[in-house]
Amino acid sequence: MTDAAGAVVVERAEGVGGELVLRRDGGDYEIISNGVFLMDTRNGESERLLVRWALEALDGPAAPVRVAIGGLGVGFSLAEAAGTPGVAAVTVVEREPAVVGWHDGPLRPFSRGALQDPRVRVVRADLVEWIATADATAGAGGGFDVVCLDIDNGPHWTVTPGNARLYGREGLARLAGLLSGRGVLAVWSAGAAPGFEELLRACFARVRVRPVPVPRGEPDVVYLAGGHRG
Ligand SMILES: C[S@@+](CC[C@H](N)C(=O)[O-])C[C@H]1O[C@@H](n2cnc3c(N)ncnc32)[C@H](O)[C@@H]1O
What we know:
Number of helices: 8
Number of domains: 1
Protein name: Spermidine synthase
Structural class: alpha/beta
Radius of gyration: 17 Å
Oligomer: single chain
Number of strands: 11
GO biological process, one term: polyamine biosynthetic process
Keywords: Polyamine biosynthesis
CATH class: Alpha Beta
Bound molecules: S-adenosylmethionine
Low-confidence stretches: none
Distance between the termini: 51 Å
Helix content: 10-25%
Order of helices and strands: EEEEHEHEHHEHHEHEHEE
Shape: globular
Strand content: 35-45%
Mean pLDDT: 94
Largest sheet: 7 strands, mixed
CATH topology: Rossmann fold
CATH architecture: 3-Layer(aba) Sandwich
CATH superfamily: Vaccinia Virus protein VP39
InterPro entries: SAM-dependent_MTases_sf
Strand order of the largest sheet: 7-6-5-8-9-11-10
């Protein structure tokens, strides 16, 4: 079936967070979740920089590095982490089984087969709930050095209302609780989120805000934070 924009619906699935649609437009794919356009395969620069900049911001000994990523999407962030020397383990938290399944099919080239990498573990869970579990706080044994959050279009534009809890003071404290002593939290946003930046600065000793220009419109923004004030 072709929609008004000329894209073909490849699959519809009943998702945990509402209906999921995978669309193909030429050689590219788009994920729509709960009626919200979430991700496509056209660019991916800021999703890769989310991981690269967080890894670069790490203080202390270079390796081995443990990374957590929420969520999987088309896999650009995961592929970046898995392809970075020194990364010993990557935990990806994704609540939609259909999204994980698409990486055995059309999305596999974009995650570059990383789901088959023995260093990569996919947790099928809601990140909001998972961060409170022992599995999360065990952090692959000693905390994650990098936690990358990209489950929404940003702190001000969440795919489902419950996700908004992650961007408040309590959610940030829980995310910080997953980090190792030197750990860095990285948050992706489509556009600046000034209120969120203010809260980050109140909660963390070190905050950096890095815009990523996009072909059209407002730049994407990567927020980096370390040194939770507790
Ligand atoms: C914007 S996409 C991720 C983009 C990813 N960085 C990439 O490189 O493709 C958001 C992903 O997070 C997932 N997601 C949304 N809410 C979630 C939640 N509460 N827990 C876990 N995954 C979630 C979505 O199903 C989707 O796969």
